[in-house]
Amino acid sequence: MKISCSVCVVNRVMPALPAHLRKKASKSTLALCRHPKNFEYCLILFSAQNKNSTKYSINGNIDKVLTKFVNEGKCTIQLKKPEHDICIQADSIQLKGFLHLLKRVLNGYVLSKELTLSSLSVTPIKPKDIAPTKLTITARSEYPSKGFPRTLEYLYINSIKRCGLDVGILQLMKLKVLNLSDNQIEYLPEELSNLPNLKELNMAHNQLGKGTIKQWSWIGGYLSKNLVLLDLSYNELTFVPEQLIKLQNLFSLHLSHNKLQKLPCGLGNLRSLRIFSASNNKFLSLPEGVPFREHGIPKALNVGSLKEYAGKKVLWARLPYPKGSIPLTLIEFLDYAKYCVCGKACFSLFLRNTHSMPLNYISETISVGATDTIYAPVDCYYCSLKCYNTSFHNRPRYAIVR
């Protein structure tokens, strides 16, 4: 049996080297074999730097097999002679199968016919036979007829006029970057939020603006914690849903060249956001995420319902509420929350006002015409009189654009 993996061999006799001098893992083929004459088992390691292979005896020569991170596709085989640690990283399913067979060999439970290859007949796995981690498709003829390899981590499907998301993409559990720019996609399925490793999603130059508010249910799930980049520019969007606030670790957000008149009121509460672009839209006002001054103080707010206060606590504590955990009516209630300048959510009980904000608060450079103003209207929500009064007396701090 042989597997394709990345291997780093560490000599335990040698002193530990600084990090920048240590050997890096290299693409390798690791085989488990039995000699046809003397029935001895061995490990054979091939790599680009070691094309002649290295043979390690197994019988009574394995000290430990460290499998703490085997679910992540990592393990270490410690040998007695030579005193080497074979650090392996491979597909977790293939690695588990390999280690299971190795365990049977060590315990003497392997039949003589199961491993019949001699050391001379073992050859490294060819690069073309190794499952890819990156795939780029720029023509319909390049689309895989047999589905996508489950090992993909980077997938680029551009300029082929796709109208929807291929369901095969939803099975790529290792996918980190998904780029579907320059197509004709109108909506994304809710199951997209089930991809546990997706960090970057590029949907620029599509037609998401034709979708309805219910077709944004893909915002949530694993994406709430993992997504760091979202590009929705050039999509003819007339709105961006309030669910955007679910993307807690979003670092880069692009909404340029759409038809947006306003932004989600909780946008300022995306605490990890560092890159934000929303040029070439039709904004009537800007949202506010932190306190600012406003004239005119209302008298009082009514007492809210238990549902209102419970919803505030759930969102403030950032508690997950996946589909199926609570009724759909409550999920919709939480998804469409407004956000106060203090960062807390509010639902039916809030104050709202518009403030004229000097643009030099949020930008070092301002380019306007001779007749244009340097002020922009800011749409503000307040969850309580305390927040309203505090914003009235405090100098504004703007954190929505970074």
From TrEMBL:
Keyword line: Leucine-rich repeat, Nucleus, Repeat
Protein name in the entry: PIF1/LRR1 pleckstrin homology domain-containing protein
Originating organism: Rhynchophorus ferrugineus (Red palm weevil)
Classification via SMART domains: LRR_TYP
GO CC annotation: cytoplasm
Domain PIF1/LRR1 pleckstrin homology, chain residue ranges per copy: 1-114
Pfam families named among the record's database cross-references: LRR_8, PH_LRR1
Signal sequence range: none
Keyword Nucleus among UniProt keywords: yes
SUPFAM superfamilies found in the cross-reference section: L domain-like
